[in-house]
Amino acid sequence: MKQNKGKIGIKEYTAIILLTLGAKLTDDTPSIIFENAKNAGWIATLLIGITSLIPILLLLKVFSVHKDKNLHEVMIYLFGKIIGNLISIFLLLGGIAALILDSGVYVDIIGTMYFTKTPPIVIYAILMTVCAYGAKRGIEQIGAVSWLLFPYIKITLFIALIFTFKAGNIGYLFPLWGEGKLGILKASAKNVSIFADFFFLGLIAPLVTTFKDFKKGTLIALLIVTIEISLALVGFVMLFDYTTAEMLSYPFHETIRYIQIGFLANVETLFFPFWLVATFIRFSFYLYLSAILLGGILKIKEFEYLIPLITAIIVLIGYAPESPSIVLFTLRQNNLLLLSPAFMVLPPLMWIMAKIRGDFKNENVKEFG
Q1: What Rg do the C-alpha atoms of the chain give, in angstroms?
Q2: In sequence order, what E strands does the chain have?
Q3: What 8-state DSSP symbol labels residue 171?
C-alpha cells in the first residue's frame, strides 16, 4: 500500500490536531493576543474559537458532499481549473510563509532558551531534517506517533498549568475586560487565522476513515484547543501579570522556568523533551500538508517526493544570520493579518458555489432515494 493511500482513524486525527494547534500556546501566539486584548487575552481566544466555528461548519458542509476529494480538488471542482489553482497557489504561499515563520520561532526558542551555544543554522537543519523524515513516513505514521505520545505530552502540560495556577495571583485577571471590549474584539478579529489550520485540514479529509470521524474529530479538537489555549493565557496572566506576559516573547517557556515542582531543581528538563517531540510532530504534519497541496497543483501523485524540496526551500529562506524574536513576532503578526480574511471568506464562498451548483440537492436525493 502506498503512503498516500493510507488512512487514519478519529483518535489519530484528533491527536494530530490537538498536538499541532495546542503547541501554539508554547510559542509567541500568547504575546500576539496579549498585545491588543491585554489581560483579557483568554476571552479573545474564546471569541476566536467561536468565530472560527462558522467557517469550519461551512467547510464541513461542503466536504459532506465531496467526501472523496481533498481541499485542492474541491477548489478545482467549485471554481474551475484556473481560479481553483490560483486559490491553491495563494494558500500554498500563505501556508509556506507560516511554516517558515513558525519554524523560525521554534529555532529561536531552542537557540535562545535551551541550546544557547549551538549555531541557529545547525538547530534549523536538524529540526527540519527530522520533520522531513517524519513527513516522508506518511500520515499513518504521523497519526500513530501522535496518538502514542498524546497522553504524555498533555499530562505534562496539565501539570504545568496546575502549578502555574497555584503560583499565580487571580487578582491579575481584573479588570475582566482588560482595557475594554473593543480591544478584545480587535484582537480576536486580527488573529482569527490562529485557527486557520482547521481550513488546511481539508487537505487530508479523504485520508480520515470516514467523513463522520473527520467532522467529529474537527469539532472536538476545536473545542479542546480553544479551552486549552484560553486556560494557558489565564495562567500566564496570573503568574506574570499581563504587562510582563506581553513583553515575554515565549511566556510558556518562561513559566516552566519560573514554577517549582517539588524536588525538581530544573523544571524545564521535565517539559522540554515532550515539547520537542510535539514540535517534530507539528512540523512533520505541516510539511505533509504542504506536499499534498503542491502535488495537487503540479499534478504529482507521488507527492511525498516533494517533501525534501519543500524542506530545503524552508531552511534556505527561513534561516537568517540574525533574526531576533521581535522580527519574527512582527512578520508573524502580518502573516496572520493576511490569512485571517482568507480563513473567514473562502469557506462561505465555497458553500455558496456548492449551493449554486446544486451539490446539496444531490445530497438530499441520496438520503431519500
Answers
A1: 20
A2: none
A3: G
What is the pLDDT at residue 187?
86
Taking the whole predicted model, whether its pTM rises above 0.70 is answered as: yes
What's the confidence (pLDDT) of residue 221? 96
Those residues with Cβ within 8 angstroms of residue 280's Cβ, 6 or more apart along the chain or in another chain: 127, 130, 131, 134
Burial of 274 (0-12, 13-18, 19+ CB in 10 A): middle
Polymer length of the chain: 369
End-to-end CA gap in the chain: 35
Q: Which residues contact 111 (CB under 8 A, 6 or more apart)?
A: 118, 120, 123
- Kindly report the number of other CB atoms within 10 A of residue 79's CB atom: 17
* pLDDT of amino acid 3: 42
Give the DSSP H/E element, type plus range, for residue 139: helix 139-167
Per the DSSP assignment, residues forming a β-bridge with 261 are 264
Amino acid at 226: T
C-alpha span between 20 and 281 (Å, rounded)? 7
Contact at 8 Å (CB) between 54 and 351? no
User: What is the per-residue pLDDT for 22?
Assistant: 93
Compute φ and ψ for 301, nearest 5 degrees: -70, -40
Supply 330's cell numbers: 512582527
Q: Average pLDDT by consecutive 10-residue portion of the chain (369 residues)?
A: 66 96 92 88 95 96 94 96 96 92 91 89 93 95 96 91 91 87 87 92 95 96 96 95 87 88 74 93 97 96 93 85 66 83 94 92 52
Domains (range + CATH), the chain = 3-358 (1.20.1740.10)
Q: Sign of torsion, CA 53 54 59 65? A: positive
- DSSP annotation of 152 reads H
Cell of 40: 483579557
